[in-house]
Amino acid sequence: MAEITNIRQGKNYTVGETGNLDALDAKLFLGQALGFTGMEVSLNRFRPGQEVPFVHQHRQHEEMYLFIKGHGQFQVDNETFEVKPGTVVRVLPEAKRAWRNNSSEDLYCIVIQANVGSLTDNDGIINDDPLTWPS
């Protein structure tokens, strides 16, 4: 079973290791272990024939699904479409959703949840600090 290990923290960062995703049982939430305060991220593995056993919605969170390996189907508001490596799906909170692996190989995706409408423009700041890398 995959879990977050080797957690290292600095004043402004947290690093963890999940190991090989083939050890992932079904879902691994990263938020609590890494201390997220504005989003949730999960790593997901669905074995052949496995599916989300219910349709669900969210109160405040929009979600982004990034499929990284395998093939399956995703359903939003009764519309079904195929997903494969590189498919990215954005779903608003009120949308009804589910997904499944209808293939013969494992299906992996990363899901990111954040409060809808919470992003601001021009949040990035380029610093004048010199960039140096260790040899």
UniProtKB/TrEMBL annotation:
Pfam families: Cupin_2
Domain Cupin type-2: 45-112
GO molecular function terms noted in the UniProt entry: metal ion binding
Any coiled-coil regions, as ranges: none
InterPro entries: Cupin_2 (IPR013096), GPI/OXD (IPR051610), RmlC-like_jellyroll (IPR014710), RmlC_Cupin_sf (IPR011051)
Keywords, alphabetical: Metal-binding
DNA repair is among the record's keywords: no
Protein name, per record: Cupin domain-containing protein
Organism expressing this protein natively: Sulfobacillus harzensis
Lineage of source species: Bacteria, Bacillati, Bacillota, Clostridia, Eubacteriales
